[in-house]
């Protein structure tokens, strides 16, 4: 039943109840009885049709109890109790619709912000620029787009304007606006600041960051939560117990009214409402924490997980080598070596070059321009800066230019770039892909959360992998792996279920094969995000803790809500066997059970914060 029809049905039931009560207490009991019987019979027929459809789909639910209660109260002429049951049943559905909307608010917010139009500049550089609005899906790679102040960036692109201030909170969860410079990437879904800017589209809409996230959200919303199946598991025993209590009350007392009085208190609203609301609340809470979970089934697997495996590069480590040491030689100073090397490395596309440049900029060095820079494939780069010939690269290449070059000893996990200046050996630059600052705390917290086996599955060399594993506290190291070997090892890991965390295209197969695949979506490949069950929107492993702890909190909340509803219902049914709760009072009392169960279920929206996780977050906060 849709939200609108559910609310209309409840309104009709309330009006019918008011009419019946007015007629009953006004002396027109026959008319009141007739209206109540017709209205309740129509609801019974509608419910039976829904039940038959469910059975044909292989689903057995709890509506049978509501039908039996309504039929029993009509049979013993408790027509007011019967219509109250209808109000309670339809009211429960309305409460479910409201609570579900409350629980999915954060997920829906992402969908509501999806850009629909893009402003394409069709005559850039001419005296008068022509701008036309086109559907986002029609934007092509290379199109020049105008993004006005306060607008949502429609597709991924590079900034053409000199600078821009953008709010990326809907993508990364970072609440502080960031400044992007010309040539930097602007993600779709970011909100532009106070000035209009131009970007050049680098991806089509379907491949852009925000649209990928929206697709994940839709998948999460449309999936069937397993707690619905969990509630169905309670359906048969709860129905049987309720009927046994009702029949026993009738048999012992010899009063058929007692049967109806018991079943009025056995209506299944707590199970029907509390179960899906709790899981949708968990999905919503995860989204608010920057973690997209693809459905309730994933939440249940996360909650029960007992083993975890991690990729190394870009997952346990930063994924970008950073400078750890400058070893100068031949009378050169460390600052001189770094500054001149960085000036040349700015022209290189090598993965180590960016780390050298970042280190120089972080130290406030003004880098001189580099002339005639040229890369020697797989060996190094050479160029002229401040009138000096500077070469950076592998030892063999530098040794061919500087005969006094000497090998440097480096530890496992480190890389080294050799430097020659004007034909003389100037020193070495030592770089390492350092572990993320939160990695060790995340691994330790997972153990405290009951993850008993933690492994690293990586294609990197054994020595480097073991070095990183020792730093972050991982138990088992599997290195030099091909993607299919990762899949095999993940399948063999014990105990189950197993969480696998990765970020790259080569991780997509193992993420899809694991019980729960977690993708580092902030920088990871689209393939990894599509294959994974969980996508972390923030570039931090703390999202893994969020996913596990929110899932466990959600499952506990769902069970609690179910058992609270069942416990209260059974207790009230036992009291009703004595005749102490008339049918009308029982129907009203059941509303208290419904509200109590829903309030417990909505507890899934509250974050389970631990002092350890708050401490771990400080490692990646700006102040930390």
Describe this structure in words.
Helix 16 packs parallel to helix 21 (542-576). The protein is 51% helix and 17% strand. By secondary structure, the chain is α+β, with helices and mostly antiparallel strands. Strands 10-22-21-20-11-18-19 form a seven-stranded mixed sheet, with helices on both faces. A six-stranded antiparallel sheet has the order 2-1-3-9-4-7, with no helix packed on it. A six-stranded antiparallel sheet has the order 12-17-16-15-14-13, with helices on both faces. Residues 223-228 and 610-624 have low confidence and may be disordered.
β-sheet strand percentage? 15-25%
Structural class: alpha+beta
Number of strands: 22
What is the rounded Rg?
32 Å
Uncertain residue segments: 223-228, 610-624
Largest sheet: 7 strands, mixed
> Which descriptor suits the 3D outline?
elongated
Mean pLDDT: 81
Q: Determine the number of helices (DSSP H or I, runs of at least 4 residues).
A: 23
Chain oligomer state: single chain
Terminal-residue CA separation: 50 Å
Measured as a percent range, the helix fraction is 40-55%
Spatial strand arrangement across the major sheet = 10-22-21-20-11-18-19
